[in-house]
Design goal:
Number of helices: 16
Shape: globular
Largest sheet: 9 strands, mixed
Radius of gyration: 28 Å
Structural class: alpha+beta
Distance between the termini: 65 Å
Length: about 600
């Protein structure tokens, strides 16, 4: 629609990062007190380098990996300014938001339950003028159309009502014929007498979607994409989308734990002022740049030679650690002897081994090490978004970049990122014990059921990934039980505790951690709870043995086509499912029967009941 394209050329206003919560980023739909808007792309967030108002997030491994995967040379990570965070707030560029959608329902009944439906071109500012020149308030229509690749547009209500006939120019009407506000009770009508229920916008007629084919519109970028078709060059359907529904926006986010590197203190110091010193051509110029007060304060007592060597190292792509995120993290955790890292507010990592009871009680025999991670840093980077269906990582923590997500910018040069600093617990498991368990006949029989369920799900969603191993599913399920037990023990809510599950040839482990963007550590609740690991693990196993939904939960089979819960074994909201902010796989691939004996008696459990 050309009119709608013209409409979004005027930005509504600016938003601070403090208003963008819950993973809301470019392309997200947001209701403000007076307007409905769509958050602008990164081009409309200001220039993070020139403005000086964005904080650089210095995580070399994450930046280099995303630059390689996204094929963006010189990719940078920045954290946008927070409103009221510093004295610079008055100069902060903010975030541009575009008014969307372009259709409105007038807040005046011309008949009981009937209101005019008007486009932006019929408005005088933010009001609609009736025939008597009286002004009436309007509210944005709740329904738009979108595709799974993130494109979004207004529904052409005139075309929808008249079924493609554009000869009528009479006023459109919004009718609510019932009190339930269900789709079947809402109609779009025309003064010519034609009308159509909103429920029909979710259907197809004569082989075409009633809201049309995707036109590739990207209003958050003030742009139209170059086509929107499937891999086999077929047009993609638009689907009706409720603007404020939970499936309107899913952020595609990369998470990684910062691990200590050689000369970590020097790397951290240089990272803070990299924009100031990276232009130095030699040590002489570096000395000049160090005269700036902020640079001198950040570099402290490091010599010019040390700083110059670090700048030279950063220019060498071979110096970057190219291990997969989880592999690097797991190897770091397993290598800790005694303690590792520095216990200081600026430290990205400090962990020490917890003392285990001797002799080991039965419940702890599969565990080889427990680390009290008193300081850690998690870096979260948004790389895209989807609509209707949430993207997910694989079990190695790698993003599925084959998913066609919505673009954050026309030409990507930087990505929004945040740092979470907090604490955690790492539990390492005996590799041989887990491998021997996985070979047991009853475990193999359960694995066969899980794999069958996964294949059924993959066929429905047209996914070609390999199913997670039974070792991963067991550790993932145990992780959820531990989160619940920790929430009852340490004072944190379960939704504030995140998991990372490691199941690799290098070893097996679980990291449970928490953190906030503005904290120099946390209150120590997780670390203190881990000091009595026997009691914590026993409590978790007791939670897994009985579910309030048993026997229905315990008897569920993942390959049961009648229930269509293909990615769950014995798992439900009564036992394993957590807030999706806690789970790395959005509550999929869970089965407590692999962890502890349930009333089903499958006999595939790893731990004996306490």
């Amino acid at each position: 629609m050309a009119a709608t394209k013209k409409r979004v050329k005027r930005p509504h206003g600016q938003l601070r990062r403090s208003q963008l919560v819950g993973g809301t980023g470019p392309g997200a739909l947001l209701d403000l007190p007076r307007h409905a808007v769509i958050i602008g792309g990164l081009e409309f967030w200001g220039n993070p380098i020139l403005s000086g108002e964005f904080d650089s997030v210095d995580d070399e491994r994450t930046r280099a990996r995303l630059a390689r995967d996204l094929e963006v040379k010189g990719l940078r990570l920045f954290s946008p300014p927070v409103e009221g965070d510093t004295f610079r707030d008055k100069l902060a560029p903010g975030v541009i938001a575009w008014r969307f959608p372009g259709w409105f329902v007038v807040q005046r009944e011309i008949q009981p339950g009937v209101r005019p439906l008007v486009s932006h071109r019929q408005l005088d500012g933010n009001k609609w003028l009736d025939d008597e020149r009286k002004k009436h308030s309007v509210v944005p229509v709740r329904f738009v159309r979108a595709c799974k690749h993130g494109h979004i547009d207004d529904i052409d209500w005139k075309d929808f009502v008249h079924r493609g006939d554009d000869s009528c120019s009479r006023q459109l009407l919004w009718q609510e014929r019932g009190s339930s506000f269900d789709f079947v009770d809402i109609f779009v009508a025309c003064q010519c007498g034609k009308s159509r229920s909103i429920i029909e916008a979710t259907m197809r007629t004569e082989g075409r979607p009633n809201v049309g084919w995707c036109n590739g519109r990207r209003p958050w970028l003030d742009d139209w994409a170059q086509g929107c078709r499937t891999d086999d060059d077929k047009p993609i359907e638009f689907k009706m989308l409720v603007r404020n529904a939970s499936n309107a926006y899913f952020a595609l986010t990369d998470h990684s734990i910062s691990i200590p590197e050689p000369n970590q203190a020097l790397r951290t110091a240089v990272g803070k002022v990299i924009d100031d010193v990276s232009a130095a051509d030699d040590i002489g110029e570096l000395k000049t740049f160090r005269k700036k007060a902020s640079v001198a304060a950040a570099l402290g007592t490091f010599t010019n030679e040390e700083v110059w060597a670090e700048l030279e190292r950063r220019k060498d792509p071979k110096s970057v650690d190219e291990r997969a995120p989880k592999v690097a993290e797991l190897q770091t955790f397993l290598a800790v002897k005694g303690q590792e890292g520095v216990d200081s507010p600026e430290s990205v990592f400090f962990a020490r081994e917890a003392s285990l009871p001797s002799p080991l009680p039965t419940v702890l025999k599969p565990i080889s090490k427990v680390l009290l991670v008193e300081r850690l840093r998690e870096v979260a980077v948004q790389v895209g978004f989807t609509r209707f269906e949430a993207p997910s990582t694989d079990v190695d923590g790698e993003l599925d970049l084959e998913v066609k997500s919505g673009a954050l910018a026309k030409e990507l040069s930087w990505l929004p990122a945040i740092e979470n600093r907090g604490e955690g617990i790492f539990i390492a498991f005996n590799t041989e014990t887990i491998k021997e368990w996985a070979k047991q006949p009853k475990v193999l029989a359960r694995k066969k059921q899980l794999d069958a369920g996964y294949r059924a799900w993959a066929a429905t969603h047209k996914v070609k990934k390999v199913a997670p191993t039974v070792e991963y599913v067991m550790l993932h399920s145990l992780s959820h039980l531990l989160v619940t037990a920790l929430a009852l023990e340490c004072g944190y809510s379960a939704s504030s505790i995140r998991e990372r599950v490691y199941a690799h040839e290098e070893g097996y482990g679980i990291l449970l951690h928490t953190g906030t963007p503005d904290a120099e550590g946390t209150l120590g609740g997780l670390v203190n709870a881990a000091k009595d690991i026997e009691r914590l693990l026993t409590a978790a196993l007791e939670l897994g043995a009985i579910c309030s939904s048993d026997p229905v939960c315990a008897h569920h089979r993942p390959d049961d086509a009648n229930e269509e819960r293909f990615l769950h074994g014995a798992a439900c909201h009564g036992c394993l499912l957590l807030s999706e902010t806690s789970c790395e796989l959005r509550n999929d691939h869970l089965d407590r029967a692999l962890v502890v004996e349930t009333i089903d008696g499958a006999g595939c459990h790893f731990f004996e009941a306490p």
